[in-house]
Amino acid sequence: MTDSILAGRCSCGAVKYRLTSAPMFVHCCHCRDCQRQTGSAFVLNALIEADRVELLAGETRPFPQPTDSGRPHVIHRCAECGTAMWSTYGGREQLRFVRVGTLEDPAALKPDVNIFTRSKQPWLQLPAGVPGFEAYYDSSLLWPKDSLARRAALFGR
After folding, report:
1. 117-126 b/e (C-beta count within 10 Å ≥ 16 → b)
2. Rounded average pLDDT over 54-64
3. Cα–Cα distances in Å, from 50 out to 30, 66, 127, 141?
4. Residue 69: which pLDDT band, with cuts at 50, 70 and 90?
5. Please, which residues have CB within 8 angstroms of residue 54's CB and are 6 or more apart in sequence?
6. What does R_g of the chain's alpha carbons equal in angstroms?
7. pLDDT value at residue 156
8. What is the DSSP string of 21-68?
9. For residues 124 and 155, what is the distance between their CA atoms, to the nearest angstrom?
10. Which of 31, 56, 108, 142 would be 5's cystine partner, CB 3.0–4.6 Å?
11. Is the Cα torsion angle 43, 25, 120, 125 positive or negative in sign?
12. What angle do CA 26, 142, 70 make, to 5 degrees?
């Protein structure tokens, strides 16, 4: 992947960033929280280490979100236009869920998995060959070995 594929920005252009490596995994989440927060049928998130997201311009503001689990979910939005750039979950600031739609080429990253399909919109047909789960899944069964190693290094396991 080239730098231009991994570069992204908010809608007004104040926040610019680039991913310094490919993400570990890409989620397509169909949960009701994601639907409500995006105003869409799902969200596409690239999971990557926070230190591999290089902020080139601008700043984001954190917006804590309510969750069914009660665990922290913070959406980081452009301080100027409010575009959602990435999220952190469970207080794990070292892992970012970058919104694939903010990439200059959002088609560069396709989903590796569909999650929370129990609340998927009924008119949406999931792509063939991409596993889907009614809730979450066991990442040790789906993630590539190098991504599992990156996650282990990140969380000390």
Report:
1. bebbeeeeee
2. 97
3. 23, 22, 29, 24
4. confident
5. 17, 18, 19, 20
6. 15
7. 84
8. S--SEEEEE--HHHHHHHTSS-EEEEEEEGGGEEEEE--EEEEEE--S
9. 35
10. 108
11. positive
12. 65
Residue 1 has pLDDT above 60, yes or no: no
Nearest to 14 by CA among 68, 74, 75, 56: 56
H or E element in which residue 146 lies: helix 145-155
Give the phi and the psi of residue 38 in degrees, each rounded to 5: -100, -15
Instruction: Look at the block and give the residue holding tokens 């990140």.
Output: 154
Structural fold of domain 7-155: glutathione-dependent formaldehyde- activating enzyme (gfa) (3.90.1590)
Task: Let me know how long the chain is.
Answer: 157
- Mean pLDDT rounded to a whole number for the chain: 94
